[in-house]
């Protein structure tokens, strides 16, 4: 399988502190790739650098063979790369449905003007979007809360809305930053099932997660990041048995 995304020698620093120190890794199309590493290793920063939130100081991000280093997030979304955040972002007063619609609007050719003018074409497009939002909610088993404000949702449901938001962009690759963190075990299981289903539908997934049982169950390969560098890559058992990985975790985490 080909690399859908490759990161080469990526570096990024804040105020003189080097956080990413030459990261190299690839995400093969069709995989659920796990990205693990001790707290502070730079995993979220790496997602931010890939998804255009932070501009790297050096190195390259290639998406489907194109150099997309430093492209703004909305341009990457149009190329099929979407990320989610650890803490669901959003507008507290909007309903789940309105959230999904809003993110569906940020699509190629979907100017705000087109959405506001009530031409037959704009109305048709709005109807299509509404259907897509309802289907997305159904797919994530959120239909029963679709008209509720996001503030009224449980932590786990908010995580599902965050995934739904990403799905509205018809992604080819989703970067998920701890989508199960802080969620009760049965909902974490449900989210895991959704990820497997999305992957079955052809979406490539890269997942940051601290729960090793979930990583073992869902991810192959697993990439380990420590102190801003990729340490090793392999299947879960290979990675877990690696002395360097054990040392990285022992040194800083357990
Ligand atoms: N905007 C920022 N400004 C300054 N330092 C930052 C910023 N974002 C992250 N850092 C620093 O970069 C380092 C890596 O943080 P990051 O959140 O990427 O780690 P992580 O591997 O995702 O950790 P965790 O598993 O705990 O979420 C940390 O030392 C953090 O304090």
Layout: helices, strands, pairs:
Blueprint: E1 3-14, E2 17-28, E3 32-36, H1 43-50, E4 58-63, E5 66-67, H2 73-78, E6 81-83, H3 96-105, H4 112-116, H5 120-139, H6 155-167, E7 173-177, H7 185-200, E8 204-208, H8 212-218, E9 222-226, E10 229-234, H9 236-241, H10 243-252
Parallel strand pairs: 3-8, 3-9, 6-7, 7-8
Antiparallel strand pairs: 1-2, 1-4, 4-5, 9-10
Adenosine-5'-triphosphate binds next to helix 1.
Protein name: Hydrophobic amino acid ABC transporter ATP-binding protein
Family: Belongs to the ABC transporter superfamily.
Organism: Nitratireductor indicus C115
Task: Report what the structure shows.
There is one protein chain. The protein contains ten helices and ten strands. The protein has 254 residues and is of the alpha/beta class. The chain folds into two domains: 164 residues, P-loop containing nucleotide triphosphate hydrolases (Rossmann fold, 3-Layer(aba) Sandwich); 81 residues, no CATH class. The protein is globular. The strands form two sheets. A six-stranded mixed beta sheet has the order 6-7-8-3-9-10, with helices on both faces. A four-stranded antiparallel beta sheet has the order 2-1-4-5, covered by helices on one side. The model has no long low-confidence stretch (mean pLDDT 88). A hairpin with a 2-residue loop joins strand 4 and strand 5. The site of adenosine-5'-triphosphate (ATP) has 10 residues, from helix 1.
Short description:
The protein has 254 residues and is an alpha/beta fold. It is built from ten helices and ten strands.
